[in-house]
Fold each of these.
Amino acid sequence: MAQEEIVLKLSPEEINLLLEGLGNLPFVKVYNLIGKIQAQASAQLGTGGNPVESPEAGSD
């Protein structure tokens, strides 16, 4: 039986916040979900690498 899917519309900032929260959980529990979020965001934004990272996030 196929799993039901839900479509959410979130801003890149909201996605980053969600990923930040997931990053605080054990990796083994969330890595598949993080991968799905990044792949879908990348496909929608037409980017490679980290699809939702803001320009400020990379400058430390």
Note: Residues 7 and 40 are 11 Å apart (CA to CA).
Amino acid sequence: MISFSIDNIDEYYVKEILQEETNFEKETAEILKDAATLHNDLRNYGNIEEKNKPLIVSGILLALRETEHGNFSLESLTGDTVKTDGSKIYAAIKANLQRANVSPEVKKDKLLSQFAIIRDDVKINEKNANLGKTPIKHFTEFLYKSIYQSLRYNSSAEDYLGRFYGEFMSYSGGDGQNLGIVLTPKHITELFCDLVDLKPTDKVFDPTCGTAGFLIAAMHDMLTKAESDSQRDQIRKHQLFGIEEQSYMFTIATTNMILRGDGKSNLENQDFLRQNPSKLQLKQCNVGMMNPPYSMGSTANTELYEINFTEHLLNSLVEGAKAVVIVPQSTFTGKTRFEKETKQNILKHHTLEGVITLNKNTFYGVGTNPCIAVFTAGIPHRPEKECKFINFENDGFEVSKHIGLVETATAKDKKQHLLDVWFDRTEAETKFCVQTTIEADDEWLHSFYYFNDEVPSEEDFQKTIADYLTFEVNMITHGRGYLFGIEEKENYQETTDIEELPMVAEKGDKYE
């Protein structure tokens, strides 16, 4: 039953009663359209590689900031063959990085080297007969009208840029899903801040920061709670730390932070797993947030398992720090020897607070069943410690046709209930939350600890079988066939027929 509140009554009326699109859905539809248009234009007029598309977008948005200082204008892009449009945009990017006080110099040089494609690519700097201008000018005009002005005048600019990046990169393939990189939805990054009760004095570390979604959410949360301009300045300069291995993602993350007024974010272009945890502890970070690369680990390459990233993060934080990670549910089933040993090591040195099973469509279109785990770093897990295991699959978000995952009128109430249960402000039935002691060999999921004594109907049983088979196929196609006694094969998805998968029952069989 929905508890109507001032926060959601208008949205409920528009969507559920009038059956109309909410402002969020209309805005999202526009973003989807703009992202698709820009992606197609970059392909058709520039023949740009996938990973370079987000870089061109990021660079242009930085250059457009110089229009406010009189150092750059759309009119200056004349298609000159000597002083090209791209060189003018590149000069504006360089000026804006200086204006943002990006330091040290080596970091600024690394960023500029990524943006050099704007200056050096011949095709986008030559006039296109169909456009009547250079493709790079066309891209710049499009971004100015559709995105940059929205960033300046839209009250929800924080959301707008992040959502555009997310949609654009999913169109372009630049989100690196083939590399195991999955962008985190905004409502999840905000939930992370709530689960650790983020304070304006906290220091936040994201070791696989991607486009900086967690750091941006943390910055926004802390700035809102800050009580003075000096404290806000301190947050921007000294309380946000990130690492990103991919150079182009690092550039996008840094740009993302600059566009939100943070030019001194402590982002590093490094391989997190190669960093010494003791040295990382010197940053004195007391909050860790992470969405590690998915489905990269294997029995032949165990260090890339999500559970290993999790342990490395915990070892990199100060004693008593809170760490929140979003990972596939299979991370905590611990079926391989390495994963079992890593879970044991985690409990020897750190404390598991709880695990929240999420909506299966949280990463809509990716096919990952995720969960959130919360830990306390540096304090060994006591055997009598009771952890919370929560089933938050029904989170108030649903898939909307042609748009993706959208928030419904019930989402705010459901999130508030989750937080009330998490912080012991209210009790919940065991079908929502189970509190129990744990063992390292347990599957750290609500489904493992929850006992449902209701007699299931035949429909319930069939649905469970269908859900299981969906999960099984998903795990096998992501290289985790060993969970079901299937030996790993290289390129499993290509070499295995669906008929080879072990099925529980043939279609039409009766379930007794």
Note: Residues 19-156 form one domain.
Amino acid sequence: MLRRFFVGGNWKSNGTVQSSRALAEQIAQQVQAVDDRVDLVVAPIDLHIGLVKDIVPAKVKVAAQNVSGTGMGAYTGETSAAAVKDFGLEWVIVGHSERRTLYHECDKTVAAKVEISLKAGLNVIACIGETLEARKAGNTFDVIKRHLDGVAAGVKDQKQWAKIVIAYEPVWSIGTGVTASPEQAEEVHVYIRNYLADNVSKSVSNETRIICKQTMYYDARPWPTVVSRLSDGGSVKPDNSVNLIQQKNIDGFLVGGASLDAKSFIQIANAPKLAGRFSML
């Protein structure tokens, strides 16, 4: 099944006006090296979305990192999906592990955000993944199923699955010194695809892109610089992205710290080419 590769950069709460402008300009200068069969998305902090959107070429889409589960109205501090769409954005991240753990977002909240985002016409990067405690207890697939149930609850029309990218986050590997191997990631991706086949349809299972968050790319700069910039956890390996993308059910990456360096981000975006995945299409 032909699925377009997808690479998203989540800048999180990082960047000043100056640094976000510089990063966007660097990506704009280097992005032509990325194969057109890769969809590229970056998600700056809200205050810098307009700035970045004006700099990057059309080849790079800009996403919101979060969205309200409610509509417009008296919800101080919230940004509605309708407002995100009205601003000209096409993508939003929902259910990120940091939203779940730091801000106690539950599956019901994720379902509401998925539903309202799809209703507004946005594409959704839906994040799921288990903690170290869950993995040690042997509850990986129980957690994945629960998270998938939450995402699915927000999808009211089967056709809307075409607007969803599922991002598997092995939360247990973040900041623990333990790295998810390509085989471990593939195992969960296969489970996700089987879930979609059993609970939605085989066509949705075949067509839905499932990406992996655990990707740290080698950077030739001195270690102190690398560690300070690539701080998501996990192991920094020269061929990590290439090794992951060789798995047939991994369709791309959601990149954290490495997306703050344009060169690293572009290298990761080129992983499908380096892995020879295009020759398999």
Note: Strands lie at 5-10, 38-43, 60-64, 91-94, 123-128, 164-168, 209-212, 252-255.
